[in-house]
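User: I'm preparing a small set of examples for a lab meeting where we compare how different chains pack in three dimensions. I only have the primary sequence for this one, and I'd like the structure in token form so I can line it up with the others. Please keep the answer compact; I'll paste it straight into my notes.
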Amino acid sequence: MSRPAPAIDPDRLLADLHTLRGFGTYKTGVHRPTYTQEDMEARRWLASRLREAGLEPAIDGIGNVVGTGAGEGPRFLLGSHLETQLYAGWLDGALGVIYALEVARSRAESGLAGVDVGAWADEEGHYLNFGGSRSFIGDLGEAEIAAARNKVDGTPLPEALTAAGLERRERLLCPAGRYRGYLEAHIEQGDELQAKGLRLGIVTGIVGIWQYRIRFDGVQNHAGTTRMAARHDAGLALARLVLAIDRRFREVAGPRSVWTVGQIALEPGAPNIVPGAASMLFQFRDVDAEVLARLHATLAELVAEADQGPCRAHLDLLEQAAPQRMDPAFRAAFEQAAERHAPGCHQHMPSGAGHDAQIFARVMPAGMLFVPSIGGISHHWAEDTAEDDIVLGARVFAAAVDSLLAA
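Assistant: Understood. Below is the structure token output for the 407-residue chain.
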């Protein structure tokens, strides 16, 4: 006769989430940027909770909090991140960390082991995108750390690590052969589950993100005396390209492709001066590598066409993150657990946002589970999820972990 899966404690789970919410409370959300006082207090609090759960906690030199269980394995690594976006939500990242903690505790209370827990530093990219998870898999060098700067105030990362008390600590590395895989839970950060009346999302893959800087060089001149026919207006050239991208991308994109102009700058930026230069930050996302390549080729073609006009056009690729597929066996375990706890209330879906799971998927099988975001809101202090959905997600997550360890 098979044993029952370890049962999570809903009250304890919710209490820990609300306690974590207290580190950097802002309105109904949280402001807890990486390496700030509030962030480090949250990491120390988590370390104490991991110890109470029977794990040996460590905070390493990049700020990762890792709780390690006794024994060699095979084990699963569970986790997410603790820091938040600026003045943002209380569940983005935190939910996955507390799920992992609760799974470890519930298993320990049942006399079971098999999991380690990690809270990965700077997933949100205040200094380095996915800095903690990349460090743990050995993909972050000292030169990159030395060159990194805070994206708001320019503080060098080494100075921030020193101020946080981390400069003398070693960076932990993922032990070879210890883990059968990595599992992460997260809020959806979109409205698809809620719109469909569903309560769980089983992630099929995480999008690749390609980001660019596009610049036009024209001729700066007087806005009142320069004839329209004689202008080399960099701002106008950039605006025309934006419209051309939106039109052409709709013809070649996949069903879930998205693209965004995130920043536009005109130089010198005065209403009485024809812009002599204009630039924008642009990105697109998709889970299909072929679609990403097609979008890139289309963008390069459009920029080349724009370069034939009165202004010179330049395209610089800044980031090229590959999409990552989630492991089929992990997806099946989440599906079976979801059907046991809430039949008919789940769907398989890609993640349009980046997560630490995509970093771990480079070196081990990985899987993710989503719970709904009320109104699809995330990266804002109004971000929220119904408590019933939080508890259901934790039960399904714990059951899937248990079935995978028993396999």
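A couple of notes for your slides: The domain at 10-206+323-406 is CATH 3.40.630.10 (Aminopeptidase). The mean pLDDT is 97.

User: Perfect, thanks.
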